[in-house]
Design goal:
single chain, 131 residues, 5 helices
Length: 131
């Protein structure tokens, strides 16, 4: 039985942050930031009407046309893939089906560095390569 669940971009941004700022630091490097034509989503929610801060590593891949090109710091810098909305969608679906424990932790907001790492690897590889 297939169940569909809406996940906010803010929660996805939180999970990306967990991966990119901690859980996956041992294997990845961002080679290029591809700026979207329009930023419809930004991670930062400014206080008192201030201007939001741009976090390219989180905001670009969560906007149409934006992406990160990711390489492998362990294997000599070979380009591994493109992190964008399509790969994020695939990564969420794969994590839900192949790694239900991590998916459950994410849904319960009990995700950690390992959860983020599993998610990023699902987005880029469709499986776990590292760790």
């Amino acid at each position: 039985m297939k169940v569909t669940q809406e996940i906010s971009k803010k929660r996805i941004s939180d999970l990306l942050c967990t991966a990119l700022e901690g859980g996956s630091n041992y294997w990845y490097r961002i080679e290029q930031f591809i700026e979207p034509q329009k930023l419809e989503f930004m991670t930062d929610e400014p206080w008192n009407g201030g201007k939001p801060q741009l976090f390219r590593h989180l905001d670009y891949p969560l906007n149409e046309g934006g992406a990160l090109l990711i390489s492998d710091r362990k294997q000599g810098g070979d380009l591994l893939g493109r992190l964008d909305l399509a790969s994020i969608q695939r990564g969420l679906e794969l994590m839900a089906t192949k790694f239900p424990r991590h998916w459950g932790d994410f849904l319960a907001e009990n995700d950690d560095a390992e959860t983020g790492d599993v998610f990023l690897q699902c987005c880029l590889f469709g499986e776990l390569i590292y760790g």
